[in-house]
Design a protein that fits this description.
heterodimer, A: about 230 residues, alpha/beta, Rossmann fold, six-stranded mixed sheet, four-stranded antiparallel sheet, 8 helices, globular, B: about 500 residues, mainly alpha, 2 domains, 24 helices, transmembrane helix (chain B), membrane (chain B)
Chain lengths: ~230, ~500
């Protein structure tokens, strides 16, 4: 589904990401871990063509993301609050995303109905603009919005950060359900090794811009990761 | 303490984000500051001689007193829109061991050193000095000057009150409006009526106590108001307004650009800066009323064109020049979501087009000033729609500066760059020159027809132009994404 070819991103002489080859298969649930500055967000930003690769390219479904916009209809993502429109209410935002992904109001409503527990009564019908919601609640909106319109690729950067424990556990369930769908490729990055091993079939470890581990998740994976990150 | 106030005020001015990081902007600001200072000083120096020359029998101070009411009103207006109150800056002091009283005095004291308080002094000080040199009684002149300073401070504190209190604002608004109304309909001659009071400040130095008392009273009102609200959750925390959703499903008839149109309408309505600009556009429809009735404008075809371009294109210029920076806070989403760049730009063009049509329609009553006025306005509207909209979008591709929508509106230079200054040339100067050439070589009729033809040509070529512009935005995409992330 996603093919990374000799991608390199450098700012001046400082290389922040350098991956020779990485293939993510359709339907895979893919986890990305690494310390701050390892290049996780850089990789996701390259996947979404938000930054220009210094060398190499990424294809998604055979489409080069830096040359065509055709990957947009089947790709959906939430990286950070710069994906939210602060002056809209959560409902308006969901319907807007629905509109641009060819989902009518009823489609969006029926999708949202699956997330009432996740929203915990703090999102819908609050008469608040997104900019006035707490960080955690903003995140919930962004994550759920990325599920609208049956995307084939879902990219979530640090979805667990800023969420309360209950919501983190619920989110794990949601991502697992999503990953169970063999048509959907889920890419998740996280600092929380436990969450990531829980939800992802495959985990890649980045360190200073390089891929240092590529693991198929087994019961031993968490130990292996902990050993790697214990310095 | 005063030394601290001044130094903080100085730093806040020169280090403010809107002061800009780029050198061109700084030079421009310094130039403007010099320009204003020098014009005010020359005004102050020249004022005495002009008045003496024009009204040899009247004491210049009395004549000045007649104008003071206008100055007061103007100051109020200017301050209300432009003077920022230093309230938010006290957050860091709340946790320091400083008494509430001191903090409050600090805020109010600080506001006394605002730039706006010094501006009029540039004119009043030279005027006072000239009066002294001309041998006017020193005591009267000096105390008159002191009284003026007190009036400045009173205005400063009144502005504080009306900015925080809607009721006070409405009261002041009604007073100001009725003063202007009474004067306009010649019910009373306001300058003549108020002049004796201002003149009394000069005639009887003891009257200086009245403005002094006003300063004291307005200061106390502010003090009481502020000290009771020195908590993070009250004045300082910005109020979260209840969101009201208006049904915008009527935009559906515009097809695929509807969702963007809805978003832009909400953008304009729910954020202070674009909202103020939109409201100003309505106000700008009255620009013609002012321009057609004064001076030579009505006779000069070049001026008619400028008025026409501005009136029908004001929203296009004001809003359009910051495309796509309005969306800078969520530009990443615009780029990563299922939004073809072309459709995004089409929707912006559509919005500007609608504004041009709208402004053209509401300015039709200017036919009252003659058919030629209407013809020029309509030709300018077509020209705006066909030529200027692509130009605005073209220059928009140079925008790389973030705009924070929640920041206040007027006097906010955020998002300004060289493009905003350059864009005026093709938008306004070029059509003026073109029109002048056509007008003087042929006739007004021909000039109008050429404008319409140009506009229609632009509309016919729209598909092509939009393709070129889209390509340009695509090329600048990474720079925009990066630039819009930079908060200052």
């Amino acid at each position: 589904m996603i093919q990374v070819n000799n991608i390199k991103k450098a700012y001046g002489s400082k290389t922040v990401l350098d991956i020779d080859s990485l293939t993510i298969n359709k339907g895979e649930s893919f986890g990305l871990v690494g310390n701050n500055g390892a290049g996780k967000t850089t990789l996701f930003s390259l996947l979404l063509d938000l930054i220009k690769p210094t060398a190499g390219h990424i294809t998604s479904n055979e489409i080069r993301v830096d040359e065509s916009e055709d990957w947009k209809p089947f790709t959906s993502s939430f990286i950070d609050e710069s994906f939210l429109v602060g002056y809209l209410t959560p409902e308006e935002y969901f319907y807007f995303i629905g509109d641009i992904r060819n989902q009518n109001k009823a489609d969006v409503d029926s999708l949202l109905s699956n997330f009432y527990d996740f929203f915990h009564g703090e999102i819908l019908g609050q008469k608040k603009y997104l900019r006035d919601l707490s960080k955690g609640n903003q995140k919930k909106v962004g994550i759920v919005a990325s599920f609208i319109g049956n995307p084939e690729v879902v990219i979530l950067d640090e979805p667990f950060a800023n969420l309360d424990p209950t919501t983190q556990i619920r989110l794990k369930g949601i991502i697992k359900d999503l990953a169970a769908d063999k048509d959907v490729t889920v890419l998740v990055s996280s600092h929380d090794l436990m969450h990531v091993t829980d939800v992802c079939e495959r985990i890649v470890v980045l360190n200073k811009g390089e891929m240092v581990k590529d693991i198929k998740t087994t019961p031993e994976t968490l130990k292996e990761l902990e050993a790697f990150f214990t310095v | 303490m005063i030394k601290h106030f001044l130094s903080l005020e100085w730093k806040s001015f020169f280090r403010s984000a809107s002061f800009g990081k780029n050198v061109a902007m700084k030079i421009f600001m310094v130039f403007m500051a010099f320009y204003m200072a020098i014009s005010f000083i020359s005004l102050g120096v020249a004022l005495f001689y002009i008045l003496e020359d024009q009204f040899p029998d009247i004491n210049p101070v009395l004549k000045v007193s007649e104008f003071l009411i206008y100055w007061v009103l103007y100051e109020m207006l200017l301050r209300y829109f432009m003077q920022k109150l230093p309230v938010l800056n006290i957050k860091p002091f709340l946790v320091l061991p400083i008494s509430d009283k001191k903090i409050t005095n600090y805020i109010l004291g600080k506001s006394a050193f605002s730039f706006f308080n010094f501006l009029p002094l540039f004119a009043f000080i030279p005027f006072t000095v000239v009066l002294l040199f001309q041998g006017y009684p020193a005591l009267n002149v000096l105390l008159w000057f002191v009284a003026i300073v007190f009036i400045i401070l009173t205005l400063n504190f009144i502005n504080f009150i009306i900015n925080k209190n809607d009721k006070a604002f409405i009261i002041v608004l009604v007073v100001v409006a009725s003063i202007i109304g009474l004067q306009y309909f010649e019910v009373v001659d306001i300058p003549k009526l108020t002049a004796p009071y201002f003149y009394a400040l000069y005639e009887n130095p003891l009257f200086v106590l009245i403005p002094a008392a006003l300063v004291f009273i307005t200061y106390r009102i502010n003090f009481k108001y502020l000290i009771s609200r020195l908590y993070l959750d009250q004045t300082l925390k910005k109020k979260t307004k209840e969101a009201k959703t208006v049904d915008l499903s009527w935009t559906k008839r515009f097809g695929s650009i509807a969702p963007f149109l809805q978003m832009d309408l909400r953008l304009i309505w729910r954020n202070k800066r674009p909202r103020t600009q939109a409201i100003m556009c309505f106000a700008f429809a009255l620009y013609g009323l002012f321009m057609y009735t004064t001076g030579m404008n009505r006779e000069l075809p070049v001026m008619l064109v400028l008025i026409g371009i501005l009136m029908t294109g004001i929203f296009m210029i004001n809003f359009g020049q910051f495309i796509p920076a309005w969306d800078s806070a969520y530009y990443n989403m615009i780029m990563a979501q299922n939004i073809p760049l072309r459709r995004y730009l089409d929707s912006k063009a559509g919005l500007m087009m609608a504004s041009v049509v709208f402004m053209a329609v509401i300015t039709t009553p200017y036919v009252y000033f003659g058919w030629d006025v209407l013809m020029v306005n309509l030709s300018c509207a077509v020209y705006n729609a066909g030529i200027n909209i692509p130009i605005v979008l073209f220059f928009g591709s140079m925008n790389k500066k973030r705009i924070d929508l929640v920041k206040s509106s007027i006097g906010n230079m955020q998002g300004m760059g060289a493009a905003q200054w350059l864009v005026g040339i093709p938008l306004m100067i070029f059509p003026m020159v073109l029109y002048a050439i056509l007008y003087y070589t042929t006739s007004m009729m021909v000039a109008n027809i050429v404008f319409v033809v140009l506009g229609i040509t632009g509309l016919l070529l729209r598909e092509k132009l939009m393709t070129v512009i889209t390509e340009l935005y695509r090329k600048k995409k990474y720079a925009m994404v990066h630039g819009f992330q930079q908060k200052d």
